[in-house]
């Protein structure tokens, strides 16, 4: 889970005694075990109403027997109980994180440092044409079509300001992430030049002085 050296994991439930009615802990297999799409997890809550609401969904949202059998085999595997899996997981995750940060610095993209998890928030605000969510969507589509790199726009995650994107640095091997980030850097470099030329063209159109 830890992406940074020396980062300490603090379970949110350990911060409260008892857990407040408005705080709920959700844990899923997909992130800790790298099995995206396996929507199986655990909900821990002290809120009886929330527990009852989720309990009413069990009959229609229950995981299949095959899925549960596979997860049971995973949880009882000797490598997991002996700690070998989590040690390797933390090491590889940290390597992927450091690689992504190195590449982001190389292509001059700012990011928010992380101590755990699979994602980084990268700051692409300077590439927006305006500060609207529509401008963010245009940038997302431009990157997808021109660089063939699919990022998650901040608006999809309820960010308060347009221009932030989520980068999952652990969904591919470091080599693949490196190729993708260099493509992203070249794509944004071209876009920055196009925006600069567009700005000069507007100045010329309006008869303003232009320094070349």
Description:
It is a single chain. This protein has 8 helices and 6 strands. The protein is α+β, with helices and mostly antiparallel strands and 212 residues long. The strands form 2 sheets. It has a 4-stranded antiparallel β-sheet. It has a two-stranded antiparallel ribbon with strand order 1-2. A hairpin with a 6-residue loop joins strand 3 (110-112) and strand 4. The N and C termini lie far apart (51 Å). The mean pLDDT is 87.
Major sheet, described briefly? 4 strands, antiparallel
User: Could you tell me the number of beta strands?
Assistant: 6
Helical amount = 40-55%
Gyration radius, rounded? 22 Å
Shape assignment: globular
- Average per-residue pLDDT, rounded, comes to 87
Low-confidence stretches: none
- Order of strands in the sheet with the most strands? 3-4-6-5
Number of helices: 8
Order of H and E elements: EHEHHHHHEEHEEH
What is the compact description of this entry?
The chain has about 210 residues and is α+β, with helices and mostly antiparallel strands.
Question: How would you describe this structure in keywords?
Answer:
alpha+beta; 4-stranded antiparallel sheet; 8 helices; 48% helix
What is the element layout, followed by pairings?
Layout: E1 25-28, H1 29-32, E2 41-44, H2 48-55, H3 58-61, H4 65-75, H5 78-81, H6 84-106, E3 110-112, E4 119-123, H7 133-147, E5 152-153, E6 164-168, H8 174-205
Antiparallel strand pairs: 1-2, 3-4, 4-6, 5-6
Helix pairs in contact: 6-8
